[in-house]
Design goal:
The chain has 14 helices and six strands. The protein is α+β, with helices and mostly antiparallel strands. It has two domains: 156 residues, no CATH class; 149 residues. The radius of gyration is 23 Å and the shape is elongated.
Length: 313
Amino acid sequence: MKGLDLARAYFEAFGMPMLKEQFPHLLPLLAAGLTGSGSECFGYDDEVSQDHDFAPGFCLFLPGEETVSRQEAFRLERAYSRLPREYMGFTRSLMQPVGGPRHGVLRSSDFFREKTGAEDGILTVGQWLTTPDPVFAEATNGAIFYDGPGDVTRIRQGLASYPEDIRRKKLAAHLLLMAQSGPYNYVRCLRHGETGGAQLAVTEFVRHGMQTVFLLNRVYMPYYKWAFRAMRSLPRLSLLAEVMEYLLTTGNDPDMAEEKRAVMDGIAEDVIAELQRQALTKAGCDDLEKHAYSVQDGITDGDIRNLHIMEGA
């Protein structure tokens, strides 16, 4: 059973009845769902995922102390802790997972402040540019099963994707780093006899290439171990996941190196075609670096456009 389905079923079987019976006056103020850290919040969990941090449970989001007092929050925590420990063959652990609790009662302001730096989801340009993609992914993944005031849903919708100028800024940086790492530095490293350096160049090309593909899909790239899985489900350029995986899992002998360089050139061609399809670039060439600067030139906010191109990396 998928963790998200387990959480929803557990909430409907025990969470909502508990709230209606014991805290009906708080129902209009609360939200409940499953979001944050863990493969189950992305729907990526499988049988292997169930060996740790996998249990029936949900997140219960509270507003600030001026609306729901510490005493009421404590009562909710006690009530949550008394919910059945076993459900559908799964048992809730008494130990907290690494990184802190993933279920239970929490202030929505604390959750969004931890993930984005802003408790209301209203971010500065600096926060948009420096907060890692996986963190935004954790703030917006999963599902909200119930939202009395609608505030958690509203904040998540505001964080669902990068503002367009921020997307362009980050695209420009990742395109430039793609251009620098491969095939240019890949080939140069091999000429110097630095096969380890060459493979690092490949890794950098793939990493920034994946970031570019996610940005072109207006989707946050999750934590690296789920990145390929997430990329395969994207509507645009998802087939590049296969060739990027090939780049990472093959050697660098002379014949293979020539093939890998050709693959990198092909990836660049596909990315440029998508940039042009979305009217993100005015450059008419096959040079990723020129397209990077063209993407940046299209930023409408002068302050963001004039930041160093690497500010978006």
